[in-house]
Amino acid sequence: MSEQLTGRHPAHTPEHAAETPRRPPVLVVVTLLTVLLTVLLIAFAWPAARSEPRDLPLAVAGPAQAVAQVEQGLEHAMPGGFEVTAVPDRAAAVQKIEDRDVYGAIVLDPRQSEVLTASAGAPAVAQILTQLASRLSPEAPAKVTDVVPLPADDPRGAGLAAGALPLVLGGIAAAALLTQLVRSGTKRMVGAVTFAITGGLALAAVLQFWLGSFEGSYLANSGVIALSIAAVSLTLLGLEWLLGQAGLALGAAVMMLLGNPLSGLTSAPEMLPGGWGALGQLLPPGAAGTALRSVSFFDGAGAAGPLVVLGSWLLAGLVLCGLGAVRSRRVVPARQEAGFATV
To answer: Annotated region Disordered: where (predicted)?
Structure first.
């Protein structure tokens, strides 16, 4: 009654005003945004700006003395750029390329040498090897042969390189939306797996049948994409289930700020600065990119390692979800007991 007479609502009482959370000053918000923007720039621009050959596997076929001379010449032209493997002949060099043991090869011949590339394996490396062809013998430039070329509809491999971001964003978006819209943890997991399958089929269809960026088996390409999306989304779901929104944010940051720029899809893992390429291959985006190249263009050669990495992340996601479920079962009874105690 007194509230009606005074015209004051309980929401406007001093006690309620004291409970209102204080918002950070504008200067703090601006500073955080500036730091975030700087981190994003470093994460995406630094690997690209420092990209150069670092121990790129390369085969050289020819007499031992000639191979040694070529190795010395490569070391002089690009110190530390190539890791040379001697092979007996051209056929052995081609086999090494098709097995994804090397990115390319140099076949020495007194009449005309030949540089073998595989643009489907790494367009940036194929371009570097093509440039080297004119340096081997200025009087008679080496012949260049693309042993495993990219599809005619996508000769620069732009589709696969651009596909790394949707793979990451798809997994992050799935985890974020499922945690907000679905209450049951089990249903979230089922939703993530279902989305991974449908997303894999859809993305592979666009890249293979519309853009012409993929070759090989459509189902195999779809399977790799689905495995990648499932690995990301289940890992993030597990982190959120176990640690809350902070876990989801941490997982998303790792996938976006480390996994995507370090994937090596636009160049090659060996071209990234000091060891970062190897780290990128241990994260889902890098492993997915390497597996997709292997499955699509090399009949699966070299796909075993990346698929093991993706499978490990998928298993880790399932384990995290399991731990989250166990934690939830312990938290709910504790809250119920606390509620009974206050009655």
So the answer is: 1-21
- Residue range 274-310, pLDDT digits in tens: 788 899 999 999 999 999 999 999 999 999 999 999 9
Report how far residue 167's alpha carbon sits from residue 291's, in angstroms, rounded to the nearest whole number: 13
CA distance linking residue 281 with residue 228, whole number of Å: 13
Cα 180 to Cα 194: distance, rounded to the nearest angstrom: 17
Domain ranges (residues) in the chain? 56-146, 158-339
**Alpha helix (H) residue ranges in 60-163:** 64-77, 90-98, 123-136, 158-162
User: In whole angstroms, what is the distance from residue 152 CA to residue 213 CA?
Assistant: 9
Q: Which of 265, 20, 267, 274 is nearest to 163 (CA)?
A: 265
207 neighbors 161 (Cβ within 8 angstroms): no
Given CA atoms 298, 302, 308, 310 in this order, what sign does their dihedral have?
negative
What is the rounded CA–CA span in Å between residue 228 and residue 303? 13
CATH class of 56-146: alpha beta
pLDDT tens digits, one per residue of 30-81: 888 888 888 888 877 888 788 888 899 999 999 999 899 999 989 888 898 9
pTM: 0.84
Q: Coil, strand or helix: which one is 278? A: helix
Q: How far apart are the first and last CA of the chain?
A: 29
Which residues lie closer than 8 Å to 289 by C-beta, 6 or more apart? 160, 164, 263, 264, 265
Task: Please state, rounded to an integer, the average pLDDT across all residues of the chain.
Answer: 87
